[in-house]
Amino acid sequence: MTDPIRRELRLLKGYAVVVTILLGTLSIAAFRQSSQKTRFTEIDVERINIVEPDGKLRMVISNRPRSIGPIYKGKPFGYPGGTRPGMIFFNDEGTENGGLTFTGRTREDGTYSSSVGMSFDQFNQDETLTLRYTDENGRKASAITIADRDTRDIYDLIMQRDSINKMTDSTARATALQRLFGPRDGVPLAATRVYLGRDRSKAAVLNLYDPNGKPRLRLKVDSLGGASLEFLDAQNKLVAGLA
After folding, report:
1. pLDDT-based confidence at 177, cuts 50/70/90?
2. Which of 49, 65, 86, 139 is most buried (CB neighbours < 10 A)?
3. For residues 124 and 119, what is the distance between their CA atoms, to the nearest angstrom?
4. Is 43 helix (H, G, I), strand (E, B) or coil?
5. Is the model's pLDDT at 2 over the cut of 60?
6. CA separation (Å) from 213 to 5, 98, 147?
7. How do beta strands 86-90 and 96-106 pair?
8. Dihedral (Cα; 208, 211, 214, 218), 10-degree rounding
9. SS3 per-residue string spanning 154-203
10. Contact 70, 53 (CB under 8 A)
11. Is 110 left (phi over 0), alpha (psi -120 to 50) or beta?
């Protein structure tokens, strides 16, 4: 083989290597670009997990069977999943801090029930602001509620509850549970402070409560259009009112 032919073959081999590298680089770049953003016209899915780069959950959208149970800093606790179709939110630490859930079905006897609820949780606690609709075969209620909650960590409370529930002495168990979930220094674990909604008696109501969850002021327009304003004491007795 002559020298010119050898040189041409070496050039062709070099060219082939360069082209192969370039094509490989372009293919990898195209794959990476497409993997970062994909567009779908329509998708059927049973569950979507929105996660941070480190894997912490930020939001879960799911059907009922694949719905998630309570999560605290990435750890399941409380009760298993499979009961809450909808959307659950998580804070920066991977702890549940609210969500949107919904149900609705007709029973075999022809009656029905339906509910939609959106809630926002106190940090490391439970619901403190809710927007909820319920309908139990025509007995409807829609309301916004605002609640006070104890600052005790919900995970610690549930762990203590689960430990108490293992007690074999039923009387001691009930006493321990009452002590755990009962008022601390006279203040309950949770207390509704504001209720604004349409209740099941078809009345439009604004209720304001004291820190113990006792109603103290009620503004109401009943199902017949009658308006009233009531001031109540801590024993729920009327002390003044307008009608």
Report:
1. very high
2. 86
3. 14
4. coil
5. no
6. 96, 22, 9
7. antiparallel
8. -10
9. HHHHHHHHHHHCCCCCHHHHHHHHHHHHCCECCECCEEEEEEEEECCCCC
10. no
11. left
First-to-last C-alpha distance (Å) of the chain: 114
Write the burial class of residue 143 (CB in 10 Å: 0-12 exposed, 13-18 middle, 19+ buried): middle
Alpha-carbon radius of gyration of the chain: 30
**What is the per-residue pLDDT for 187?**
86
Euclidean distance between CA atoms 219 and 229, whole angstroms: 5
pLDDT of residue 167: 96
Place of tokens 């801590």: 234
Q: Quick check: 72 and 155 in contact, CB under 8 A?
A: yes
Q: Find out whether 117 and 126 touch, Cβ atoms under 8 Å.
A: no
Q: What is the distance between the alpha carbons of residues 88 and 103, in angstroms, rounded to a whole number?
A: 15
| 94: DSSP letter | S
pLDDT per residue as tens digits for the range 96-123 = 999 999 999 999 999 999 999 999 999 9
DSSP conformation letters of 113-130: EEEEEEEEEPTTS-EEEE
Q: Which residue has the higher pLDDT, 11 or 39?
A: 39
Distance of CA 151 to the CA centre of its chain: 19
Taking the CA atoms of residue 20, residue 26, residue 32 and residue 36 in that order, the dihedral angle to the nearest 10 degrees is: -160
Residue ranges per structural domain of the chain: 1-39, 153-183
Residue 39, helix vs strand vs coil = coil
Q: What token pair was written down for 154?
A: 């919900």
Residue closest to 142 by CA, chosen among 152, 130, 154: 130
Q: What is the average pLDDT across 141-165?
A: 96
User: Each residue of 41-93: pLDDT tens digit?
Assistant: 999 999 999 999 999 999 999 999 999 999 999 999 999 999 999 999 999 99
